[in-house]
Amino acid sequence: MFDNMNAGMTHNQVKALAYLMTRKYGASQCKAAAFFNVSQSTISQWVKEATYMIQINQLQQELKFAEQKISQLMPPSS
C-alpha cells in the first residue's frame, strides 16, 4: 500500500512526513526508519531538521508582522 509513497517527494517533504509520523501520530523512530528503509538515527536527524524548519518559518512570519508594524510607524516618503 505504501510502497514508493515517497517517490517524487522532495527531501524536505520526506522530512516533514517523518516528523508528522513520529511527533503527531506517535510512530516510533524505529518504525519510521523501517518505513523509509533508513536508520533510526537518520529519522532522528530528519525530525530535528524539520523542527528547525518549522521554527524558522514561524520566525519569518513574526518578522513579516514586525516589518509591517514598522512600516506603519514610519512617515510617508516625500
Any overview of this molecule?
- The protein has 78 residues and is mainly alpha-helical.
- The chain is 72% helix and 0% strand.
- The chain contains three helices and no strands.
- The chain has helices spanning 11-24, 29-36, 40-73.
- The longest helix has 34 residues, at 40-73.
- It starts with 10 loop residues before the first helix and ends in a 5-residue tail after the last helix.
- The model has no long low-confidence stretch (mean pLDDT 90).
How does the major sheet shape up?
A: none
Q: Helix share of residues? A: over 70%
Average pLDDT reading: 90
Number of strands: 0
Q: Based on helices, strands and strand pairing, what is the structural class?
A: mainly alpha
Q: Sum up the overall morphology in one term.
A: elongated
The string of secondary-structure elements, in order, is HHH
How far is the first residue's CA from the last residue's CA? 63 Å
| Secondary structure tally, helices | 3
Q: Report Rg.
A: 19 Å
% residues in beta strands: under 5%
| Low-confidence parts | none
